[in-house]
Amino acid sequence: MLDRSPASRMPAFPIEERAAGPIDTLPACSVLFVDDEPALRAMGAKYLRRQGSKVGEADGAIDALAKLREHQYDVMVCDVRMPGSSGLDLIGRALEVDPELAIIMLTGVDDAHTAAAALQAGAIDYLVKPLPLGRLATAVANAQQRRTQRERFLRSERALRAEVMLRAQEVEAERNRVRVLTVSVVESLINAMEAKDVYLRGHSHRVADLAASIGEHLGLDEETVEAVRVAGRLHDIGKIGIRESVLNKPGTLTDEEYEHVKSHVAIGMEILAPLRHLGSVLDFVRDHHEHYDGAGYPRGLNGSDISIGGRILAAVDAFDSLTTLRAYREARTDEEALTIIGRVNGQLIDPAVYEALCDVVRNRAALVFVEPREELR
Asked: What's the number of domains the chain is made of?
């Protein structure tokens, strides 16, 4: 049935006397008016200019996209039905050029499906022709307001994100400062302990450096390599609680003395326990006397159940012990130490770590490794 109502006989943009003058709700903005009908496009553009807007005109999708690339518009008013690419097709492509563009769609057909498709594609309003020019002006004003609000929201969001990032960086910097401070305190204790024992002097530094080199050789990430290095510095902190007479005994340890030496791992963990921010460093220190075959201590772990840092430190600690002068024996050469450790490869030592140790030691000619069970303290 034909629509014979008065509205159906009105031109698409009737210029009504009451709507011809400026309206308070329309802010100054830049509008791109897209319509393939020159008369309607000119009428709408002329009216919006009278309201104070800067208006560009385009006769279709291709022309509109070119103008959007040349100039930034606040609002695009676009007809739905145009030759070639439709207004619906233009919405997504226009938003690719300017994601903040506010889009108003115009159509001569009041179709709910088309309206829903336009809004879903990214338009913020959908107007049905014919309509008073005042209604168009109000729609443009609302679109501009929504764009402004969204821009403010995005600016606030960016500022908040930047603030959060800054605070996170400050927290991380403070955490690192505390971490360095606490590690330095523990290192001072270790240095004091090693200073009293000529056989331990420099041990933790050598273990840390060699362990880090092996970690890099194994392809560990930078954070893990650093954790291995720190664990190397701290691994023997528990020896503070071991009797000097036992540590420096030139002969074979009794069973009771050996159990006493083994307790240095538990003592060390008690000392380091409050430093929970050290994370995996604590795991590596705890595991540095575990054996690959499960015969180590304190938990009797085996294989990959032992942390990678623990497996590396087990090898390096033993290597340094073998190549350092002790009260009960002379220092071994690097090759002698590697040979001794090779005899327990796969038992005390992870084979992959042993291979890396050999490569690093032979390339640098000065590193630290694991000694056989009968010589470990």
From this structure: 2
